[in-house]
Amino acid sequence: MHRRPRLIERACSDRRRYRHLLEAIALVGLLAGCGGGGSAAPTITIGAAHTYELSGFTPTQPVTAGKPTRVSFTILQPDGKPLTQYKHGAGPHNGVHLIIVRRDLATIIHHHPPVGPNGLISDTITFAKPGPYRVVIDVYPKTSGPVPNFQIDSHITVAGAYHPQPLPPFQSSETVDGYHFTLHGTPHLRAIEPAFLDFTITTPSGAPAKFGTWFGALAHAIFFRRGSLDYFHTHVCAAGVAGCTSIFGAARVTGTSTTPGHLKVGVLVPISGTWRLFLQCRIDGHVLTAPFTLRVR
Ligand SMILES: [Cu+2]
User: Fold this and answer.
1) Which of 48, 205, 234, 258 is the most buried (most CB within 10 A)?
2) Measured in angstroms, how far is the CA atom of residue 1 from the centroid of ligand 1?
3) For residue 5, is pLDDT > 50?
4) From ligand 1's centre to the CA of 218, what distance in Å?
5) Distance, CA 190 to ligand 1 centroid (Å)?
6) What does the pLDDT read at residue 48?
């Protein structure tokens, strides 16, 4: 018998509250490896379930641009107790990833804050500009279950006049602090189809960049979709480091970096649209973020 799911009938506020549950359930069926999650509620039937929840998230009031702001929260386990045991070890799939993006995708913040006593996670962030920000908390609990990670959503408002910037058109090169990022060829990306993006990165003197390990990976490729702010995150890891394959159903893809200055980023974007890729790596001790606009069919 097909029963209309109770959850879908709930009011918007409830939907919002349950969004991370929907995402977690969607992840069980669809996605392993690096994280992805979106705003589209999958049409599935679920009964009453206890799941991970965000607790005590601050700030709850608008914050001031240019001033260090404390961001803190606890993740509660399905039994209501604080989550204190997180995955750790080599590779990027560890602990808690805090990814904050302004709604217009003009700016991103990516931290891995430490887990404190009793599971309290606390970070200090200085927002440069006013506006609405989406907060993605990508959680890697130490469990042996089928889901390596899940995301919980929150938001922060930075007070002041918000002037959304239009997303720049596709450009194949970006210069960040004198480092040149070049994307080779014209990417033909399709939803749920593995593809590679080939990048060359050179230093201000023109030499091939040497990638250091930052947050467990040689490069982090964080994607947000324009409008809905759907999220996809993948990595290029050093040889022999596990956990850098993106999996979506039967499709899988793994990025590599076999020669200095080259990154082959494996992409498996969940849905079509216009996406902003924030490519992040550490070179000569500098953490660099190079943004690219990409169409996905
Ligand atoms: Cu990452």
Assistant:
1) 234
2) 42
3) no
4) 9
5) 22
6) 55
Q: What is the C-alpha separation between 78 and 57, in angstroms, rounded?
A: 17
Average pLDDT, integer, range 287-296:
97
CATH number belonging to the domain at 173-296, selected among 2.60.40.1940, 2.40.400.10, 1.10.238.10, 3.50.50.60? 2.60.40.1940
Question: What is the structure's pLDDT at 11?
Answer: 29
Q: What residues form DSSP beta bridges with 276?
A: 224, 293
Q: How would you write 79-146 as a 3-class SS string?
A: CCCECCCECCCCCCCCCEEEEEEECCCCCEEEECCCECHHHEEEEEEECCCCEEEEEEEEECECCCCC
Ligand 1 center to 40 CA (angstroms) = 23
Q: Under CATH, what is the fold of the domain 6-158?
A: Immunoglobulin-like (2.60.40)
Phi/psi at 88 (nearest 5 deg)?
-145, 165
- Ligand 1 midpoint to CA 62 (Å): 27
Enter the pTM of the model.
0.83
Q: Check whether 55 has a pLDDT greater than 60.
A: yes
CA 178 – CA 67 distance, rounded (Å): 27
Instruction: Report the chain's mean pLDDT, rounded to a whole number.
Output: 84
Across the range 277-289, mean pLDDT stands at 96
Q: Phi and psi for 137 in degrees, rounded to 5?
A: -105, 110
129 Cα to the center of ligand 1, angstroms: 23
Q: What is the pLDDT of residue 36?
A: 53
CA of 108 to the centre of ligand 1 (A): 12
